[in-house]
């Protein structure tokens, strides 16, 4: 068996599915791509944009002859999407996905497709935009793709999937699914929850008019509004499917927030200053790592 997949089927042609389709066509043109989306208007737009080589009219048609199927649908739709594809799957087709939480997805895909090799993955790359116009080929460039195989998964198949992600620009990390869900709860899910909260709070305030919120939304608040514009379906599902890890991180966060609230009430400037100094250092180290990412060569030479 070669290291390369021959045909990749992408189910769900929004931001993630569209970006994978465009990136594979650009960097790995020898791999055939097909795709399917439940929404007819999305299928039509995907065909216009050429998000995949062939936009199929059914899920079964899309997965025909595919040796890799990637589910790029909201977390709550993974089970239905897999059920729809099942009758058309090659018995040896590898199944993957891009869902933002991993334990729950692995469970549902394993239940629906018990006889397939399932290797869940999560590209930590996205924007606040969704749908068939949101995807672009360079989305994964220099970004992490976390692969969360179950214990005992064939190392060859893990490597084959890793090589694919690297070829479309990503850096790959292998992680246990439960650990992934805790890490992402704090680095991605909680920040979105905070953004959704603060933008809602500002919108509800009676003493500050809507006009003032819009007019003075410079700097920090504006960044929050970008995140709070993220897709409601996707994020509803993230909080439903990574519930326990998010609730744990939210508890820790609430305790820390209460400590800062106390420091403000007591006029404890030293505590506030020390805290802000520590967080500034974290930001700076993230930027330094980002520069490493931008300058690295990830071997994206089109060869797999
Ligand atoms: N947006 C991000 O920043 C981001 C980043 C990493 C991972 N993810 C994950 O990627 C997945 C997709 O997110 P997205 O941002 O591409 O969303 P999106 O809304 O842009 O695209 C999802 C597509 O799935 C389609 N769909 C829904 N149910 C379907 C079904 N049963 N069969 C076929 N198609 C179906 C929708 O019509 C839609 O076009 C989610 O699981 C999300 O958690 C998102
Ligand atoms: O950059 C953004 O807009 C994102 O929200 C991307 C982001 C993130 O939180 O980093 C969102 C969800 C994911 O599953 C992965 C990436």
From TrEMBL:
NCBIfam families: PRK07502.1. Transmembrane segments: none annotated. Its EC number is 1.3.1.12. The lineage of its organism: Bacteria, Pseudomonadati, Pseudomonadota, Alphaproteobacteria, Sphingomonadales. The keyword Disulfide bond does not apply. It comes from Novosphingobium sediminicola. One of its GO terms (molecular function) is prephenate dehydrogenase (NAD+) activity. One of its GO terms (biological process) is tyrosine biosynthetic process. Pathway: Amino-acid biosynthesis; L-tyrosine biosynthesis; (4-hydroxyphenyl)pyruvate from prephenate (NAD(+) route): step 1/1. It is an enzyme of class 1 (oxidoreductase). This is prephenate dehydrogenase. The keyword Acyltransferase does not apply.
